[in-house]
Amino acid sequence: MDSIAVFGLGFVGLPLSLTYAMYGVRVYGVDINKEYVERLKNYQTHILENYNGKTIQEILKESIQKGLFIPTTSAKEALENTDKIIVTVGIPIKNGVLQKEVFNAAIKSIGKYLKKGDLVLIRSTVPPGTTREIVLPILEKESGLKCSKDFYLAYSSERIAEGKAFEEFQTMPVAVAGIDKESRKKAYELLNIINKEIVLASEPEVVELSKLIENSSRDVNIALSNELAELTEKLNINATEVIKVANTHKRVHLLRPGIGVGGHCIPYSSLYIFDKTDKMKLPMTLLHTAREINENRPKEVLRTIETALNRRNRKIEHSKFAIIGVAMKNNSSDISESPAMRLKDIILQNGGDVSWFDPNINGNFPLRKYSIEETLKGADVIIIPIKQDNIKIDIDQWKEFAQKNAIIFDAQRVINKDEAEKLGFVYLSI
Ligand SMILES: NC(=O)c1ccc[n+]([C@@H]2O[C@H](COP(=O)([O-])OP(=O)(O)OC[C@H]3O[C@@H](n4cnc5c(N)ncnc54)[C@H](O)[C@@H]3O)[C@@H](O)[C@H]2O)c1
After folding, report:
1. Edge-to-edge strands of the sheet including 407-410?
2. Which of 88, 135, 275 has most ligand 1 atoms within 8 Å of CB, for mutation?
3. pTM
């Protein structure tokens, strides 16, 4: 295998390209974001991954210097140099509407330069039927070639978790199906370079939908834990402990409750399913309910905090909130669909003041502070939605900056309740 092309160099596409590069494959990495491609050429990326003691920036530098990774904005350049194309461009969602044109534009750019014998392997998460009903006709129309005769098309879902990408590209079993047997065989060989556990499926729709239901099953599971958390709050018992005890049953595996579900993977998967089922008028009640419960979580969390504030004759209005860690999940640099950011917006809508701190997030944002001290200054409420290992939790020091008897809402249970109360904080958790 001499070279491949990877379209989309985001949280999936960049580490995937660099994993192939580690196996000696030359990768043409294509992204439409010119400024980002320039930054990549200078060994810079916002992505936080590491492997075998090296940061992704170090791996990026090594791969470029060895000529094994070539970032480019040119689909033409990439397709002239390879016959194997992997797509990792996603379908963003804006105000609940799928931006399919983003994904389709990537497919069109591939179709324009597609040659006889090429393989296109879709790895993006997509509504069921996309490979056959959307990708195939676009590629045929743009190229004038015929699928299964002139070129090959397959789908393999991507299952990595951010932060573990390099490891999981190699160790997480992957499922693959082709439009025809030859497409699946060629896709298998491409995947097999870096991954040895490959599950063969009969058709792309099976793998597309299995990916979505994998994510949605987590949405439902977390919604159940979040609903439990609402009950345990009323019963004044500890949800985390209830779950820990329940999970000692060998066939029970409840996930952790929290302040909501963030990122693209889990929330978007059900929306991709609804894209299909709405047209069929299928209600999908359970998935809708899970979405609703998890979407409402930041509101529920604020209601819990409000009750504690009211007990101290305070209101959300004019109270100062400090949010420590705003990424969409623990140890992430991604704020997509972050529940902490939604909580911030709801606090603002209710008249509260907010400051937030998260050293993993790139960019300038309103209300962002660059030190814990500044963030906690005069805080009536301290919220810890997620855990970032590079944020030092030192409540002994925090009490110097926050209001006396400030409320701590510790969604991650990173603080010892007795210690917090001894220091005068009001401690709340899930
Ligand atoms: N992030 C994850 O952990 C994860 C895990 C599993 C699956 N997925 C799925 O993988 C896909 C990619 O996710 P991501 O997190 O890497 O997204 P991302 O937003 O980080 O990256 C997408 C990249 O595609 C580029 N792009 C957009 N249009 C393009 C075009 N026409 N040509 C070339 N590049 C183009 C963007 O500039 C961006 O850099 C999505 O379908 C997502 O649902 C993501």
Report:
1. 353-357, 320-324, 381-384, 407-410, 426-429
2. 88
3. 0.93
